[in-house]
């Protein structure tokens, strides 16, 4: 009986994690110990096509050492023709009581943060995504040099629901 229950649990887990038909691109890069303010995390990908729309996300993994309840990022998209779009984005990372948002059962939480919606890649070639933190303490002009608690930074591209 016990082995049947274990088999059902493993089967359910695999079924839930294996079905990710929306994913087009999804990768992470580790942040060793602390994320330095001048450290830019970069991703390079080919335009999947020039017709369909895609949703773009910044994915983060953070732990209990993350000292803030929000996060500011500078995200830059470089197009094959040289055009650059740079955005400053703010995300909520914790509840008012300090409990981290995101998914996960341990002290590591994973957050899927919206970057851009319904993007059409009109140009063929290589696109580059560059992500840098822009955190500051309240009342301070200079930024946080070494941001603690971020363990991995990722970039994800998905088909929009209408593309399926």
TrEMBL record:
Output the superkingdom of the source species. Bacteria
Which N-terminal stretch is annotated as signal sequence?
A: 1-18
Instruction: List, alphabetically, the InterPro entries matched.
Output: Motility-assoc_lipoprot_GldH
Q: Which UniProt keywords apply?
A: Lipoprotein, Signal
Protein name per its UniProtKB record? Gliding motility lipoprotein GldH
Q: Which organism is it from?
A: Bizionia argentinensis JUB59
Query: What lineage is on file?
Result: Bacteria, Pseudomonadati, Bacteroidota, Flavobacteriia, Flavobacteriales
């Amino acid at each position: 009986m016990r082995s049947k229950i274990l088999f059902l649990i493993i089967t359910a887990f695999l079924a839930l994690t294996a079905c990710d038909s929306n994913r087009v691109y999804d990768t992470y890069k580790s942040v060793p110990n602390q994320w330095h303010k001048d450290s830019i995390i970069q991703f390079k990908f080919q335009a999947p096509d020039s017709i369909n729309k895609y949703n773009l996300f910044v994915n983060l993994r953070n732990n209990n050492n993350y000292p803030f309840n929000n996060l500011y990022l500078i995200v830059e998209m470089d197009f094959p023709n040289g055009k650059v779009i740079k955005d400053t984005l703010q995300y909520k990372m914790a509840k008012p009581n300090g409990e981290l948002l995101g998914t996960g059962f341990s002290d590591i939480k994973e957050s899927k943060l919206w970057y851009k919606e319904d993007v059409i890649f009109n140009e063929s070639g290589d696109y580059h995504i560059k992500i840098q933190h822009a955190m500051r303490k309240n009342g301070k002009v200079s930024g946080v040099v070494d941001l603690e608690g971020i363990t991995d930074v990722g970039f994800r591209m998905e088909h929009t629901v209408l593309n399926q």
